[in-house]
Amino acid sequence: MAKTSKSKKAADRADEAVETLVRGTGTAAATSDAGDAASDDAKPGTASKGTGKDKDQGTAEQEIARDTAKKSKNDKGKKAKDGKAKDDKAKDDKASKKSKDDDKGKKAKGTRDKKDKGAKREAALDGASSAATTGSLAFGDPDFTFSETLRAERGLVLADVDTRATPGYEGDKKSAAMDLVEGQTELSDLQERLWANGKDGDGPSVLLLVQGMDTSGKGGIMRHVVGATDPGGVKYTAFKAPTPEERAHDFLWRIDRALPDPGQLGVFDRSQYEDVLVVRVNELIPRSEWMRRYAQINAFERAALARGITVVKVMLHISSDEQKARLGERLDRPDKYYKYNPGDIAERARWDDYMEAYQAVLAKTSTKGAPWHVVPADRKWYARLAVQQILLEHLRGLDLEWPAATFDVATEQERLAQT
Ligand code: AMP
Ligand code: MG
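^ thats the input. predicted complex w/ magnesium ion below
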């Protein structure tokens, strides 16, 4: 596609605006202050492994990565030292907070989690990294949210995220299954409220957008999280390689058509982000073209937000080893063959390129209005609960009341009685 210098300038300006948005400050200063991101200290760090294949971006991203890695390394050392004392204090704080907590909904959960915390926590969490990411709050505390815990803040280094960790959850697989069932009831109720509020043609809607590598568990989210909702109120789309018709339009054309209407829960199984992931990694279009797409996506999502769509973006993050195991299982079990695609091996071979592309997505499109949530997904039970809760937290945030009657109730009761 021909590109004038004018459109390049516009794209650069848009990129600048994006940076500003992500930073959440008024200054569009370049990339040099990347290391002072506020939220990195929650994540345990190891050095990042940007390959710098993509020059401009490599430089900026590597800078963020280096600074963050340095910072989290320091934090890690410090945490190792005072980690235990802190942890004990956190537990005490939590205990006293919990005893005061008379929040009805959460109580059953809190009690259950607390009872068998010690041993199970050890078993479930694979050690210190999770404890470091959870801080002092966990699921069941009134002030805890998965949304905040897993939000991709500026400076997040994907390579530093422990894919087996269960941040903010102190229970195990069994308790998570029970918590998931509890959440399904609330999800069903809130979705009905959402739907009820959309009946008159305006009112909010919610979009749950799920991205992740092959086998990361997107299907499980659809079944176990979205599956608890009323399909009549859901607008679900699984995005595949574009059809000839879709290809004839701009890449956002099919995405726009799939956005939820008022009252609907929109669900994207893959999304517009494939157009800067698989497309970028496989060089399906020139670099100059996909580079512009980050800003285009941000502008698109801003417009969606302005239309009353709450955008909830989730990345299911698995390790390469976990993917290998899951692909192996698909090949071992006849009831899983249908999920296996020989093409998955070719994509798997580009794992590092994909991680670099995901890192770019997080750095460029985790905006204030539509941030990413990076969900460690090597443990399916954790990922499902976390995504469900993130969705619930956003639905709760809409404060959905049942809409008032648009008719006179007494009159209608009388009319009914006369039949
Ligand atoms: P699955 O989700 O396993 O059914 O696979 C869908 C496939 O479609 C994946 O390999 C995606 O990478 C691919 N895909 C989705 N969107 C695009 C796109 N915009 N361009 C090229 N391939 C895509
Ligand atoms: Mg697949």
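The first helix runs from residue 5 to 23.
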